[in-house]
Design goal:
This protein is an alpha/beta fold. It has helices at about 20-30, 40-45, 50-60, 70-85, 95-100, 100-105, 120-125, 140-145, 210-215, 225-235, 255-265, 285-295, 310-315, 320-335, 350-365, 380-385, 410-425, 430-440, 445-455; strands at about 1-5, 35-40, 60-65, 90, 110-115, 135-140, 150, 155, 195, 200, 220, 240-245, 275-280, 295-305, 335-345, 370-375. It has two domains: about 1-140, Cobalamin-binding domain (Rossmann fold); about 180-455, TIM Barrel (Alpha-Beta Barrel). Helices cover about 40% and strands about 15% of the residues. The strands form four sheets. It has a six-stranded mixed sheet, with helices on both faces. Helix 1 packs parallel to helix 7 (about 120-125).
């Protein structure tokens, strides 16, 4: 049996190995003894026709397409083209998990997987590719015309692997990090190639704009010993020069991050590392930050969202701007690069709160920052609450324009705010000097692309 995994090509400045697909490939190879192939159309800049040609050459028994909202349209185009050639197609990922009926209808795929894919894909392989009666796996016949229910009952997500240590290392042989350009999650990175690694799945926070809590079932962590086995493999066999921990919140459990940092030190891991997905400000303290720095962490990212405490309450952030500011200052004192991410257009946003956030960001100890328009991700509580008031637009760049606007604000207000704040934030002597010194030549074109997408130069 042969299974082909496809990662679509789409407009983005980030180009990193698709960790979820790499895990699926290694898992079913270990537990089902099947042959797999991964096509990363983003890395290889492949068109739909290129993908179909490669699929014909490989002639798989099943094709799985990875789908996020950011590349939903591309996923649909690929699926339809493959179905025209007679392939059996399934689609998995966060987007089809929360919009399974629409995804099936648009894509003409045979079925979708809702939730994490390891166990349902294993069941499908064991059943000789019969997808019927497997938890979390649905076709149009089973869903009929309802996005969230079957015969009045909620759509069940797939079974999950509770012990993450039983999942083998990602299938790095197929997509080694060295084959990727220097265009990482954090936009600017020191080392290349970059090793992507996750120590956990899930997040307990209930931020209304995020779908992570609703996608994963609970919080599961790999043992530090298991993580270190992969760290050593990436350093010794893949030649990685930087590690990026892409957990939803690496510092969630204090004992765990302390154990991990000590393991990195004791095993003499000398490569720098960072947390590009962000950590919660209330989950770090002076001792933890100092240990992170000692073990090689050079950049820490905080999800800030807004400098207005009422907006933070509105989105159930569970933090105050005072807590966030304290964490930034402590990280700055350790000598780490501090980065923060902000969202404009959240519920309760006004021109006054926008200015409050701009003033905070510009005057803070942050070295770098990302400023975004609100996107309503399928599966987030905010998207459910506002489902009658917006419609996702798959035609424009996923990071470029807001999906929904608070009262008294226009799209132009948000986009010009983003343009203005980037200039005000970065064109200060300390930040600009440090930034220019940190940018490798190999990343220049990707940084320019990010700046265009973020409206730094003009209103697009």
């Amino acid at each position: 049996m042969k299974i082909l995994f496809i990662v679509p090509n789409f407009d983005t400045y980030v180009m990193a190995p698709p960790l979820g697909v790499l895990y699926l490939s290694s898992y079913i190879k270990k537990y089902c003894n099947v042959e797999t192939k991964i096509i990363d159309a983003l890395r290889d800049n492949l068109s739909v026709n290129d993908i179909v040609k490669k699929a014909k050459e490989y002639n798989p028994d099943l094709i799985g397409i990875h789908c996020l909202t950011a590349f939903y349209k591309q996923t649909i185009d690929i699926s339809r083209a493959l179905k025209q050639e007679g392939f059996k197609v399934n689609i998995g990922g966060v987007h089809p998990t929360f919009l399974p009926y629409t995804t099936l209808k648009d894509s003409q795929a045979d079925f979708v997987v809702c939730g994490e894919g390891e166990i349902p894909l294993k069941r499908i392989c064991e059943n000789n590719l019969n997808h019927k009666n497997i938890q979390g796996v649905y076709d149009l016949e089973s869903l009929k015309d309802d996005e969230t229910q079957i015969n009045g009952e909620p759509v069940l997500k797939a079974e999950t692997v509770m012990d993450l240590d039983t999942i083998p290392m990602p299938d790095w042989e197929q997509l080694p990090p060295i084959t990727y350009p220097h265009s990482p999650h954090a936009v600017i990175a020191r080392g290349n190639p970059i090793g992507i690694i996750m120590t956990s799945r899930g997040c307990p926070s209930r931020c209304t704009f995020c779908s992570s809590n609703n996608f994963y079932k609970g919080i599961r962590q790999r043992s530090v010993a298991n993580v270190m086995e992969e760290v050593k493999y990436q350093v010794e066999h893949l030649g990685i020069q930087e590690l990026q921990f892409t957990d939803d919140n690496l510092t969630l459990k204090r004992d765990y991050i302390i154990e991990l940092c000590n393991a990195l030190i004791e095993n003499n891991i000398k490569v720098p590392w960072s947390t590009p997905n962000g950590v919660r400000a209330d989950k770090v303290d002076k001792e933890v930050l100092a240990l992170m720095k000692k073990s090689g962490c050079y950049l820490i990212d905080f999800g800030i969202e807004s400098a207005n405490n009422q907006i933070l309450k509105n989105i159930r952030k569970g933090e105050t701007i005072e807590q966030i500011d304290l964490a930034i200052n402590l990280a700055h004192e350790t000598g780490m690069i501090t980065q923060g991410n902000f969202i404009f257009g959240l519920p309760g946003e006004t021109k006054e709160t926008i200015q409050e956030t701009i003033n905070y960001a510009v005057n803070s100890k942050l070295d770098r920052a990302g400023f975004f328009a609100l996107r309503l991700l399928p599966g987030s509580d905010l998207s459910k609450k506002l489902k009658e008031k917006y419609q996702l637009n798959y035609e424009h760049s996923f990071i470029s324009k807001p999906d929904w606007l608070p009262d008294n604000l226009t799209e132009e207000d948000i986009l010009r705010t983003i343009q203005k704040v980037y200039w005000k934030f970065y064109f200060r002597p300390r930040r600009l000097w440090n930034l220019l010194n940190d940018i490798p030549v190999s990343q220049t074109k990707y940084i320019l692309k990010a700046m265009i997408n973020y409206h730094v130069f003009k209103l697009c």
